[in-house]
């Protein structure tokens, strides 16, 4: 049985291009997998709190030594990790903010990167504990990062996302970028059309 976690992170609602593209992806994917279980999470509707000093203490305390208070610190994180681990596939829609990800999606990442649950340390090295999962990112970005663009080399979004999901053990990671969305009508249309055709191509075997 296929299961998918679809998460939108744009603080914008109907104006959000990343939400729209992810919704298009999901509609096409569901046509191909009518029996799949879909879990939807919207960081706009349900913001994720930043981690705190108590949270960090709880994260690095062995589970059998957690006091009820420290256990409570990890309650939401446990739910988010359970949800993330339960899905065979994750579709994350993420705008680019300040060359990286919005802070709400970073807060989500901070909650799911958990010692003993999604990674561990072995011989002083991090070791991912997540396996058998496909992760797809649909991003929306105001400018273009292609070769020759003034922004070439400044994309800190894809590398950060690749690094942290690979760190947790995910090996199957895809990106669909919609670029140039705030560079005028022609660039926006080009960026959205290119993203849409990549959706149609990738959704078939995903
Ligand atoms: C606070 C903020 C920061 C942004 N920073 C960048 C940036 O660094 N690079 C970029 O290409 N676009 C940037 N943008 C443009 C957005 O990525 C673009 O408008 C995108 O469509 C937003 O996603 P959404 O339409 O799903 O809300 C920024 C937009 C906002 C509101």
UniProtKB/TrEMBL annotation:
Its cofactor is FMN. The keyword Acetylation does not apply. Its EC number is 1.6.5.-, 1.7.1.17. The keyword NAD applies. InterPro entries: Flavodoxin_fold, Flavoprotein-like_sf, FMN-dep_NADH:Q_OxRdtase_AzoR1, NADH:quinone_OxRdtase_FMN_depd. FMN binds at residues 10, 16-18, 96-99. It is an enzyme of class 1 (oxidoreductase). Residues 3-201 form the Flavodoxin-like fold domain. Binds 1 FMN per subunit. It catalyses: N,N-dimethyl-1,4-phenylenediamine + anthranilate + 2 NAD(+) = 2-(4-dimethylaminophenyl)diazenylbenzoate + 2 NADH + 2 H(+); 2 a quinone + NADH + H(+) = 2 a 1,4-benzosemiquinone + NAD(+). Signal peptide: none annotated. GO terms for molecular function: electron transfer activity; FMN binding; oxidoreductase activity, acting on NAD(P)H as acceptor; oxidoreductase activity, acting on NAD(P)H, quinone or similar compound as acceptor. Keywords: Flavoprotein, FMN, NAD, Oxidoreductase, Plasmid. It comes from the Bacteria. Homodimer. Belongs to the azoreductase type 1 family. Quinone reductase that provides resistance to thiol-specific stress caused by electrophilic quinones. This is FMN dependent NADH:quinone oxidoreductase.
